[in-house]
Amino acid sequence: MPRDVDHDQRRREIVGAVWTIVARQGIEGVTLRGVAAEAGVSMGRVQHYFGTRDELVRHACRLMVEGAQAEHAAQGQALPPVERLRLLVHRAVPTTPGFTLGVAVWTAFHAKSVDDPEISAILTDAHRGGVREGAALVVEARARGDLPDGEDPAALALRLLALAEGYGARVLVGSLDAAAALAALDREIDRAAAAPRD
Amino acid sequence: MPRDVDHDQRRREIVGAVWTIVARQGIEGVTLRGVAAEAGVSMGRVQHYFGTRDELVRHACRLMVEGAQAEHAAQGQALPPVERLRLLVHRAVPTTPGFTLGVAVWTAFHAKSVDDPEISAILTDAHRGGVREGAALVVEARARGDLPDGEDPAALALRLLALAEGYGARVLVGSLDAAAALAALDREIDRAAAAPRD
DNA sequence: GTCGTTACGATGCACTTGCATTGCAAAGAC
DNA sequence: GTCTTTGCAATGCAAGTGCATCGTAACGAC
């Protein structure tokens, strides 16, 4: 067994270049040559690790979802559930350059999902995972008394996430201020914390 | 002045083909040849009316926004303001084939806006127009006593629209049921009608 | 009728694209 | 050392792309 290289590491490097390009030029901008150049590797390498362009794009989608989940888990580790919920929701709004890239890429894959069932499946999983996480945080927060009972946790989580994505999309396009979006989301969470619904 | 043809009509025919293709294969799927074939015209015609591919795509974006606005205005003509508001937010959810196409195309242009400032400008206008329309309906409904006072009309309209787009995106991807999305939106409107906020 | 203008249709071209192929070099296994 | 397997790099190629160009047919003004 010759030439022991870390395949996953190589793939991550290449996928990182894909994200950069997608955020700048959309998925149509993803070409084998362009990705290779952006990653600073040869086209042969890209081909070696991703036999096909579609596979490259799909892997980029998978890794971005996994990365976002991992990042969120790490960031909120020491925070109380309500704050972790807030963090989860804030992720959908392009504030920092990192989030902006993430939201742009996220949006691109959303559009791509209309003609790629695999992407659609990945996003569906991501959506469900997000709602599950959000609902769990709601339950946790209620157990601590930080959030009043009421609305179904999953429905509440879904509502907050959908709202956040709607605001986030507008911020990305430029028709809404990021600060205004965050403020609106915070109001929504605080209101859920202050008064029971339904 | 020879050969009197209706330019706008010709453009609409071609743009219709663009929408169809975008909904099926995304904006990357838009090629001059493909559009010509879908519209049942020659490639020369497409080139004649839209000098460049970019112009074609942008015009398709403009016409879709205008068409949506006109359609909404026509549909709700005889309805009370609250119902017109309901219609406005329901538009973002892919229920009928027509709305599904619309939401798919809308999503595609949203993604495209990251690298095309003109598209971004068109969408920004559309966003603002939507909020203005929604806010006006809120004001109108309040004047009739159908909606209680409270939240700023524009903020309420923005919240409803963002929420609708968030739900709509999930329905498009397939992670959410259209009926569930509509129900959630109706609950939101009814709640705004039942209890003042903030 | 003719003349000029417009609305195309047809074709050609330079370029980019994804992917197949080929060759080779590095690193264990022996 | 040899051998074998893997990890690439280089190149080639057919297909598809946007766009320029050229020809021409239709129609109105005169």
Structure overview:
- Two copies of one chain form a homodimer.
- Chain A has 198 residues and is mostly helical.
- Chain A contains nine helices and no strands.
- The longest helix of chain A is centred in the middle third of the chain and has 27 residues.
- The model of chain A has no long low-confidence stretch (mean pLDDT 95).
- Chains A and B meet through helix 1, helix 6, helix 7, helix 8 and helix 9 of A and helix 1, helix 6, helix 7, helix 8 and helix 9 of B.
- Chain A binds a DNA duplex (30 and 30 nucleotides) through helix 3.
Short description:
The structure is a homodimer of 198-residue chains. Chain A is 75% helix and 0% strand.
List the helices and strands and how they pair.
Two copies of one chain form a homodimer.
Chain A: H1 7-25, H2 32-39, H3 43-49, H4 53-75, H5 81-90, H6 97-112, H7 117-143, H8 153-173, H9 178-194
Helix pairs in contact in A: 1-2, 1-4, 1-6, 2-3, 4-7, 5-7, 5-9, 7-8, 8-9
Chain A binds a DNA duplex (30 and 30 nucleotides) through helix 3.
